[in-house]
């Protein structure tokens, strides 16, 4: 999952900043095309990972929502859901673009913490 976070999430975040900061219309157009696709893919793989993690815990008779890794994962997926809804509201409220960028940066920070908890959890077995 760390590969998904760093490759898809990292590059998707970079593209989001290019959309906001670039003066080149061609670069912006390419970033606007790829940014939502990459981050939708990241969401998909994270949701699959969560399903696999919950299944692994259930089959090993371990509590599901007691680890910080599980809690940060649930919060992260909930925030990604909100994040994916925001662009549909951009036209009615341009200030939401800034909220989208700030929330996205916060989500990536949360998932870095989530990765650290996952590594700690994996090393505990």
TrEMBL record:
InterPro entries: DUF4079. One of its GO terms (cellular component) is membrane. It comes from the Eukaryota. Keywords: Membrane, Transmembrane, Transmembrane helix. The keyword Phosphoprotein does not apply. Pfam families: DUF4079. This is Cytochrome b561 domain-containing protein. It comes from Oryza brachyantha.
